[in-house]
Amino acid sequence: MYKLKNHIKDSIIILICTIILILVGELLFQILYSFSKGSENYKIYSRYFENKKEYENKIHKNSIFKNPYLLNTFYEKDKKKKVAVFGGSTALGHGSSLNFTNIISEILKEDFIFHNYSIEGATFNDHMITLINKVEKYYDYLIIYSGHNEIWSNLYRRNSLYKENLKIPNNVYKFSSNDYIKNFKKRIQLLDIKSNNLNKLIYKFTHHSRTYYFFEKIIFKINRHTDVKISQDININVSNKDIIKKNEKIFPLFINKQFLTNENKKNISENFLNKLKSIHKKKIILVLPPSNLLYPPNLDYLSIDYYNYDLEKLVLKMYLEYNKKNIQFLEQNLDLLPDTAHKSFFSGIICLSKNNMIMSKSNCSNYLNRAIQKDQFPTRILPNLKIKAKKMLKKNKNIIIIDPEKNFLYNKNSREYLNLFIDYHHLSTLGHYYIANQITEILYPNKKLKFLSLSDCDELKIQFKKDKIILFENSKENLNYNLNNNILWLKSRINEYQIDYLHKYYLNNSLIKLNKCNKIITRTKFHL
User: Fold this and answer.
1) What pTM was computed for the model?
2) Are 104 and 94 in contact (CB under 8 A)?
3) Domain extents in the chain
4) Is the CATH number of domain 50-299+375-407+426-520 3.40.630.30?
């Protein structure tokens, strides 16, 4: 009994000392934060002592899952109309200094409140529709930017419902149905933060404590030490002389058994549209996300009866020659290829070359879209889904469809077109501006945005109305966070794909921008 009392006493002393240390740390960091904000260089030094809430509000403005306190506006009596955004990593703004929600929320802040529910890798069929059913009653408009990730929804159904035990064709990823749902459930619990006292207490401590966030950043940097110097540990070879990779962890050019059949692709489209039509009595803005058509297909199918190693070598050689701008080689060998995704892609490239690489000429995009539709591992929205959506929802008064592809292609050469993206479907700041412009026209009829300028470091200047000019300044934190995210992403893609010249192109661009803009930008506050 005596030992137990001493043990309890010692535990209480340790607890009290820990609390005192935390309080002293909080006081110290608060003083340092206040002092740094009062100095000439407060924009540089204050970030070392900020809390997580202050950081998240700069980097992830409007994101519900990064800033759950925004849920408070659910209960505010406000004349402003409320808009919810649903999507995956593109809608969240992966790799870009600005996303379309950032832009329109600033432009229309006098009349609208925006909440972004987007989650990296989220599907519409399983994730976003669940969120919409949970929160749609709070909003006047729903903006849906989804379609690129629907392959994961199909894999989930085939694994969990039909027990197909699918594995990703590059032998790296083992699709986990449990993780697919489990990770999402963790996110959705945040929506109950107002009613769950424990969640609320944990959130307040982790997001308001300066001491906690200071040490969290230290631990994060230690864990990611090998990735901090990305520009030094990766070989950038845009000429891509060694294009042929033979490794079991890399996606093959061809598989001899279909991974995604036409029936599977049809189910993806039908599930998407049926879930969309189940949303009632709301104004829905459906953005059919644009794909980077100049990316080759990820994975092609060729039956074992037609496959031979010489054919695979020819396809690899054609990509190598295309990267050298040898279009004549493509023309000479095109008819030797069977009618697969790779042939459709090369047909589109040959078509573009005959039209000075102007993306909107002679319907060359039809060939490139066909290559995506035939892709056995499509990480871009299926073109047939877009076609069906426009056809089936045309008479639906509650759903307004935006298809940005025409604007993305219009009168642009291939280089200008590539500048709208940062990989095969994630958008650049300029690409997000295009989306924001079309959404603004719907929410604020007859009021178009006017593009004025975009700096090399992603500082966007636009005009809204005749007398209102808005400058979206960038910051070192925002720039580094987004560029490093994209660099890591592209690096992993290079390690997985046979044809990687565009991954290397965008990686090289990101590294150049990171080095250049870190020397130019000294601000640490993200101004909006």
Assistant:
1) 0.82
2) no
3) 1-39, 50-299+375-407+426-520, 300-374
4) no
